[in-house]
């Protein structure tokens, strides 16, 4: 528990430093090419964590420790449910709503928002925004989870009320990102979700907004042209290839959603905001099934980003529900405490992808599968992306593959193997930038022996 004490101390130091939330979390906007996000003109690589039940499970000390840990691991976005269900409450601040009514937020004027027992749920959320900003974290806030829509508690009458309340209260938080929807197919309640989006946008035109759909779906399928939707979000889901029997099944190929979203007009950025979580059973509620591991978490991240996504969201089973052993789990048989889950290897490795992508010219990057002459299906895929003077190719199995040279600048290129587990780069050599060349990754070919090949113009300044 030493890390908990250290994290809280770090949070206090940040508060004492007086660092501006606006400085640490400047406003986000869509880049000029409609493909990425930026802040103050600089690239913003979204590295998110699914802290879905943070408001319903953690007190302030625990929240501070969680933020400090994820900040140290390179995360910059936390996805949070504002209202999970009608009985949503914080263990210290109490219920969010009066009698579970979306039109009656439980607000207690005149209390002291700094004192336990006196601050209400909404005071606590104010504090959460401020502490997240102090750690350089944006809050991707889902106002209303899908349970409300399922029982028609979110409808044409209630959506404007809760939408206006949330937008008026949080529109001045610099680190806010709106996530309309709540793990549901929008076509089941299209009017309610659209009204919620329009209401929030009318009150708060300055923060980005998207829609979080159910598994194996994208916001683009219904809301791509909605004026309130600034970027697309998809949930590639938790099923394996063998379990996916849905219409137009795409299995574990999350990159397909990225490609589809980026093919639409007008151009809007896209991201996989809910891939398979580390340590969660294949198919979620199938207890005897194996669990997704660190290698799977890496694969989903590298596949989607190299296909053109502007970032990626990671999830861990115990962390997303903040599970404490000895208490009842929300779902999916977590085995670790949420504190242990924060150190799951895949979650600790996510920042290596972010670091590599940001180390090269960001806004010029495009997906380019023509770089690879022998990419295969499923796990045999070799994902590829490039800028003007660099290229990156990722293999999940570490199998040898052929690269079509001459796709980036320079008569000669420097080549290196980048390890997604450690972030270490091992030079291979310098080669002529012509023809087709075979590259053989280290180790034996096997799922999880993943490597990224990085090519740079030998005369360039890329590091």
Automatic annotation (TrEMBL):
Residues 31-364 form the Apiosidase-like catalytic domain. Residues 261-284 are annotated as: Disordered. InterPro entries: Apiosidase-like_cat_dom (IPR025277), Collagen-bd_put (IPR024749), GH (IPR017853). Residues 1-21 form the signal peptide. Pfam families: Apiosidase, Collagen_bind_2. It comes from the Bacteria. Keywords: Signal. Residues 366-456 form the Putative collagen-binding domain. This is DUF4038 domain-containing protein. It comes from Sphingomonas kyeonggiensis.
